[in-house]
Amino acid sequence: MSIMLFIERVYMGIVIVLVKVFGRKLEKRYKWEPIKDDLEMGNSAYPMVLVQIPMYNEREVYQLSIGAACGLSWPSDRIIIQVLDDSTDPTIKDLVELECQRWASKGINIKYEIRDNRNGYKAGALKEGMKHNYVKQCDYIAIFDADFQPEPDFLWRTIPFLVHNPEIGLVQARWRFVNADECLMTRMQEMSLDYHFTVEQEVGSSTYAFFGFNGTAGVWRIAAINEAGGWKDRTTVEDMDLAVRASLKGWKFVYVGDLHVKNELPSTFKAYRYQQHRWSCGPANLFRKMAMEIIRNKRVTLWKKLYVIYSFFFVRKIIAHIVTFVFYCVVIPMIVLVPEVEIPKWGAVYIPSIITMLNAVGTPRSLHLLVFWILFENVMSLHRTKATFIGLLEAGRVNEWVVTEKLGDALKTKPGIKVSKKPRLSRIGERLHLLELGVGAFLFFCACYNVAFGKNHYFIYLYLQAIAFFIMGFGYVGTFVPNS
């Protein structure tokens, strides 16, 4: 399986080099030109755009996202801002509604929408939002999560792709992280996500005009959403679900890598674990539900079906997590205990090294953190592997949805809230993660055994990896928010 992952990484590396060196620019692959004024039609020459902002108890960031959406440059009578507030905290709901009223008083066409339940979570909110009568006049929907802040020219740069190319159903922008330097954990996340955007999304867009919708910072053609069957809440990755179904209907996707939208990375380990569970469990569960549907589809080519099933789902969403954990945290330690079994040097050193280097190309500024990133990713592979099997087997937490906590500028502007890079001793109990501690103890034992009886030097890696598991097991990673 490591060979499969290696081939996939090399393939994407070759494709991205060819795209960067020989590939045509997006504006040449697809028709793109500014939407021109029409003296006779006036503003009606511009398509009607709906901007959706789903949120849930977003006390720290609601003003940022609403303000950024209301600041989008577009004819004022051709845009509707729709705030979908699923908050359960009455105080926060009042604050969000007041913020919407404040912008409405400035002449912004903004709608504050609530519902009496949270059925379907984000997918349910987006689906409910599209049922309002005023949405029927809209052609496109731009979606931004509550911590996303698009630049004013976002619509001017994305909408023309949809207007001039009727086969395009989605235009996706890249994320830019405003808090990447907050702590070491956010730097590690930046490295992983930069590879996703720099390589995976770019390769998918350039080769098969398909990639997974990132759930935010994108613009959909409403006709594509409707033809694909609308939003569904059968998994925790409603964005990927919609993208796959729309692609099977023949719609093409465009990734605009030089269009960045600011957002926030989870900076607490608790929030990051919940997010990674959802991001790992959801795709595996979606693969289980859609594999046969993809195979039976007759509207897309065999090669595209092979790409979606093998490359997009099987290798990246399933094999990648399992191989990382099994190889680094099971196979290598067990070989120490069973010295009769050996790993060839190409399997133990060369292939993992190449895969790691290819993953690091997205964030050159963090190359000096490569060792820390490897150790961090190996620890997280434990949770991703567990979540992957939960998704494949549809076990207990398969539909667990915990909204990723956002801190915004609260920690900088509110003197009453303090953040410590390390948890207080009095609260260490609530920060313990027994699974990490258990694996760390196993690796530490294997390292000691290797020192005492082994003939190789695996103990160097095993000690480092054990320490990483212990650090994260005791909660000494990310920021720590008291009473969070």
TrEMBL record:
Glycosyltransferase 2-like domain: from which residue to which, for each copy?
Answer: 140-332
Matches recorded under InterPro entries: Glyco_trans_2-like, Nucleotide-diphossugar_trans
What chemistry does it catalyse, as a reaction equation? GDP-mannose + (glucomannan)n = GDP + (glucomannan)n+1
Membrane topology designation: Multi-pass membrane protein
The entry's cellular-component GO terms read: Golgi membrane
Q: Where in the cell is it found?
A: Golgi apparatus membrane
Query: What are the EC numbers?
Result: 2.4.1.32
Where is this protein primarily located?
Answer: Golgi
Alphabetical GO biological process terms? cell wall organization
| Keyword annotations from UniProtKB, A to Z | Cell wall biogenesis/degradation, Glycosyltransferase, Golgi apparatus, Membrane, Transferase, Transmembrane, Transmembrane helix
What family does this chain come from, according to its entry? Belongs to the glycosyltransferase 2 family. Plant cellulose synthase-like A subfamily.
What's the protein here called? glucomannan 4-beta-mannosyltransferase
Q: Where does this protein come from, organism-wise? A: Macleaya cordata (Five-seeded plume-poppy)
